[in-house]
Design goal:
By secondary structure, this protein is an alpha+beta fold. The protein has helices spanning 14-22, 40-48, 80-86, 97-104, 149-156, and strands at residues 3-5, 27-30, 56-63, 66-73, 77-78, 92-94, 122-125, 134-140, 143-147, 159-161, 164-165. It has a 5-stranded mixed β-sheet.
């Protein structure tokens, strides 16, 4: 069962600290992470009882030599060509996981688009705008944050573009 809280928890993550500092309305959902689950995002959706089209995963790609964040629904995948196009690039490939972790300050499966060590260009899949709230990683496996897509876009400087594939 997921726990909900609108208050900053002791030992918060950089993502929840950033949300609190910005004065954004958000809800934290925590659940017991199962390391054997094949998909971090699908596990989060199941644990929270939220439709997978409202739970978004944070992926880091290399677009023409620049690390770029893509936030897409867990039920689908990232369209690398669309991501490159959305940021005015020519070619995109998934970033090296070690480099993604080092640059964002988060571990794989817990990378949040918020509170990253280094601010990266960010693209939020346009499908997010169809929902009042979406869930993204709060910076740790087993911890999600629910917020309005407009708040996420504003805090990350994200552009909205159709970069997810079903």
């Amino acid at each position: 069962m997921a726990k909900k809280s609108k208050k900053q928890q002791p030992g918060g993550t950089p993502a929840t600290v950033a949300l609190t500092a910005a004065g954004v309305d958000y809800t934290v959902h925590s659940y017991d992470h199962d390391p054997s689950h094949p998909s971090y995002g699908e596990e989060a959706a199941e644990a929270m009882g939220v439709s997978p089209d409202r739970v978004f995963k944070t992926l880091v790609a290399d677009v023409d030599g620049t690390l770029t964040v893509a936030v897409v629904p867990v039920a689908g995948s990232l369209d690398l060509k669309a991501l490159a196009s959305a940021v005015g690039g020519k070619k995109a490939a998934m970033a090296d996981p070690v480099l993604a972790e080092r640059t964002t300050g988060y571990v794989r499966g817990g990378i949040s688009p918020l509170g990253q060590r280094k601010k990266l260009p960010t693209v939020l899949d346009a499908s997010a705008s169809a929902h009042a709230t979406i869930c993204v990683s709060a910076g740790r496996r087993g911890l999600e944050v629910e917020l309005a897509p407009g708040d996420l876009a504003s805090l990350t400087g994200a552009v909205l573009a159709p970069v997810g594939r079903t």
